[in-house]
């Protein structure tokens, strides 16, 4: 009850922090999609390159977020951005690469060879094949990668409050430092709820982007 | 017209070089269907796919309508060759209309033109345009999907088509229907077609010519009838099967061996006269009775004619069956076996008797080619023996 009261009293702040959180993750994953999808497509051309890139992306994900922030502080301090918005976005951008690149690569690679042969046989150029056949067919799986990245990084972004990036993590870090369970729990619950809601919202987007003729195939997958 | 000149493909495998197609030279005349036939791994598919460069030839040349394709742009070449594959390969993200119009779009046709073309194609493959154009491939049955696959290949009206076991994944009943439809379309379209199959019956049915492959080599290239009558070697013979003489029944029409020398009686004739005619014509068991429009009315059997007095009209039996001039001998043979008879009356399209077909005439016709060949061999042996 006390928690509920606290949340109500601080509704404005809660809303501001939520928007901050969403925009941080949104910008970072947005940029990550713009880089990850082309990389994922590019590495389908060479299996060796693909192994290398995916290995590198996997290593990045194994670095604990707090350590990654630590590494970035001295480097980004050179341009006066050691803490705050920029390192938070960069960290999320890096973490997002693996699910997005991996899903794009898998999806393009798994396009039915018969479809690829049909596309070649009727005279599509490699670019036309990508644009008209391979990418549309890969969209559901690519979007699933984006969803994974978003949900994963809503959690990571909570920790970015420690380097002053803002977001819902501020409630948690203050709750700990001020020994205030109300702030702590409200922050934690808000982060969790946000992750769940965004996941469902993106699922709807994924369904909307899925080519119409493939809906059956997706729901059975 | 398609010409292959020493077309060769060598695959480098870990076990060494494998020659998948070995100096294949052949020519398919304009408007003909050529079936590439053989067991799996014989090089028929490799040969087909080298024509549109899905597989790049190691050496040799492909000419289409007399023009060397070697220097042509690959995409442009493919857009002018219809391509149908066994897995159909319709794009699931596109509607039927988008699938059919994909090549015209690549060729830069304007919208009204290719939309119109999609409707034309649907009419050609006998699917209702309004019911199907806006639907997706996953909503169609396998047979319908392959019809669309054929329509897609034909949409830009290419002079040449390549078909890689196009009907192989369709159930036997639908396959026969779709084969018939395709042959009917081909009569109007007159495309030059290369068609891969491993099914001898399909090859005989669909092919104007059949090319038999074995281990990367073209073994025999001839018309279905020549192939069945005179297989070049033991491999072709065994591949065609022990019943290859029976398979030829499909290829011969009643018209080719019908005899117009048929004895008949009329209802007003006496049985005595019928018996005399049976003997005159040398019939074993019976003679045909016709009405005044020359339509078959019944048969008079020898035993009845010999033992009974009276008129034919009172003592005839039903005719077991009649055959049409356009029927093939397979149907005739089947009817003869079913009704335990050695001859059947033939009727024209108006139902008038125009002759008879006998088991003797059928076996004589089929056997003449075999005998001719045996004669050749004897002659050849005789000359080499000298």
From TrEMBL, chain A:
Checking Pfam families in the record gives: BPD_transp_1 (PF00528)
Origin superkingdom? Bacteria
Transmembrane stretches in the record are 22-41, 53-76, 82-101, 137-164, 184-205
Q: Which GO terms describe its biological process?
A: glycine betaine transport; transmembrane transport
Domain ABC transmembrane type-1, by residue range, is 18-204
- Keywords (A to Z) from UniProt: Membrane, Transmembrane, Transmembrane helix, Transport
Q: List locations, semicolon-separated.
A: Cell membrane
Q: Which PROSITE patterns match?
A: ABC_TM1 (PS50928)
Q: How does it sit in the membrane?
A: Multi-pass membrane protein
Q: Does the keyword Ubl conjugation apply?
A: no
GO CC list: plasma membrane
Q: Does the keyword Transmembrane helix apply?
A: yes
Q: Which SUPFAM superfamilies match?
A: MetI-like (SSF161098)
Tell me which CDD domains the record gives: TM_PBP2
InterPro entries registered for this protein in UniProt: ABC_transp_perm/SBD (IPR051204), MetI-like (IPR000515), MetI-like_sf (IPR035906)
Which PANTHER family does the UniProt entry name for this protein? GLYCINE BETAINE/L-PROLINE TRANSPORT SYSTEM PERMEASE PROTEIN PROW (PTHR30177), OSMOPROTECTANT IMPORT PERMEASE PROTEIN OSMW (PTHR30177:SF4)
Q: Report the sequence similarity comment from the record.
A: Belongs to the binding-protein-dependent transport system permease family.
Q: What is this protein called?
A: Choline ABC transporter permease
UniProtKB/TrEMBL annotation, chain B:
Which GO terms fall under molecular function for this chain's record? ABC-type quaternary ammonium compound transporting activity; ATP binding; ATP hydrolysis activity
Say which enzyme class the record assigns: translocase
Q: Which residues form the CBS domain?
A: 316-373
- Keyword hit for Acyltransferase: no
Name the UniProt record assigns to this protein: Quaternary amine transport ATP-binding protein
Q: Which organism is it from?
A: Litchfieldella anticariensis (strain DSM 16096 / CECT 5854 / CIP 108499 / LMG 22089 / FP35)
Q: Which NCBIfam families match?
A: proV
**Which taxonomic lineage does the organism of this UniProt entry have?**
Bacteria, Pseudomonadati, Pseudomonadota, Gammaproteobacteria, Oceanospirillales
Q: How does it sit in the membrane?
A: Peripheral membrane protein
InterPro entries assigned to the protein according to its UniProt record, in alphabetical order: AAA+_ATPase, ABC_transporter-like_ATP-bd, ABC_transporter-like_CS, CBS_dom, CBS_dom_sf, Gly-betaine_transp_ATP-bd, P-loop_NTPase
């Amino acid at each position: 009850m006390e928690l509920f009261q606290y949340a109500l009293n601080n509704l404005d702040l809660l809303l501001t922090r939520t928007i901050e959180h969403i925009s941080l993750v949104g910008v970072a994953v947005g940029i990550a999609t713009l880089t990850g999808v082309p990389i994922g497509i590019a590495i389908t051309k060479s299996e060796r390159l693909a192994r290398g890139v995916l290995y590198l992306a996997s290593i990045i994900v194994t670095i604990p977020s707090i350590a990654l922030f630590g590494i970035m502080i001295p480097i980004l301090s050179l341009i006066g951005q050691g803490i705050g918005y920029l390192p938070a976005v960069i960290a999320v951008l890096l973490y997002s690469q693996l699910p997005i690149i991996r899903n794009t690569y898998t999806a393009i690679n798994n396009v039915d060879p018969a479809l690829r042969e049909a596309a070649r046989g009727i005279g599509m150029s490699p670019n036309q094949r990508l644009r008209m056949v391979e990418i549309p067919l890969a969209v559901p799986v690519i979007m699933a990668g984006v969803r994974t990245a978003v949900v994963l990084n809503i959690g990571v972004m909570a920790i970015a409050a420690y380097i002053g990036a803002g977001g819902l993590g501020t409630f948690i870090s203050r709750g700990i430092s001020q020994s205030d369970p109300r702030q702590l729990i409200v922050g934690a619950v808000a982060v969790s709820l946000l992750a769940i809601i965004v996941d469902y919202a993106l699922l709807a987007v994924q369904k909307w982007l899925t080519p119409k003729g493939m809906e059956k195939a997706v729901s059975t997958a | 017209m398609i010409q292959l000149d020493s077309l060769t493909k060598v695959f480098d495998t870990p076990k060494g070089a494998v020659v998948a197609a070995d100096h294949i030279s052949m020519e398919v005349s304009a408007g003909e269907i050529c079936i590439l036939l053989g067991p799996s791994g014989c090089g028929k598919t490799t040969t087909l796919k080298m024509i549109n460069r899905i597989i790049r030839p190691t050496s040799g040349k492909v000419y289409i309508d007399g023009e060397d394709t070697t220097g042509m742009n690959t995409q442009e070449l493919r857009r002018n060759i219809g391509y149908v594959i066994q897995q159909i390969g319709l794009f699931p993200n596109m509607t039927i209309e988008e699938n059919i119009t994909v090549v015209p779009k690549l060729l830069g046709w304007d919208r009204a033109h290719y939309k119109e073309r999609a409707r034309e194609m649907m009419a050609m493959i006998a699917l209702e345009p309004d019911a199907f154009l806006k639907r997706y491939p996953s909503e169609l049955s396998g047979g319908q999907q392959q019809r669309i696959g054929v329509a897609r290949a034909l949409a830009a009206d290419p002079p040449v088509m390549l078909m890689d076991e196009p009907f192989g994944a369709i159930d036997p009943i639908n396959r026969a229907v779709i084969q018939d439809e395709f042959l009917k379309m081909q009569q109007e379209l007159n495309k030059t077609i290369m068609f891969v199959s491993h099914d001898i019956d399909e090859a005989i049915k669909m092919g104007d010519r059949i090319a038999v492959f074995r281990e990367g080599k073209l073994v025999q290239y001839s018309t279905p009838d020549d192939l069945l009558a005179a297989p070049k070697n033991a491999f072709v013979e065994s591949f065609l099967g022990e019943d290859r003489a029976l398979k030829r029944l499909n290829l011969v029409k009643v018209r080719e061996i019908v005899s117009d020398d048929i004895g008949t009686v009329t209802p007003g004739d006496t049985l005595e006269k019928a018996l005399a005619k049976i003997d005159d014509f040398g019939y074993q068991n019976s003679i045909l009775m016709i009405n005044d429009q020359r339509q078959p009315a019944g048969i008079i059997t020898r035993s009845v004619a010999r033992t009974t007095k009276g008129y034919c009209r009172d003592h005839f039996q039903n005719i077991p069956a009649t055959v049409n001039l356009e029927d093939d001998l397979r149907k005739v043979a089947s009817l003869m076996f079913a009704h335990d008879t050695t001859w059947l009356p033939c009727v024209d399209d108006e139902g008038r008797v125009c002759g008879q077909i006998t088991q003797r005439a059928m076996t004589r016709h089929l056997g003449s080619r075999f005998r001719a060949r045996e004669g050749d061999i004897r002659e050849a042996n005789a000359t080499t023996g000298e």
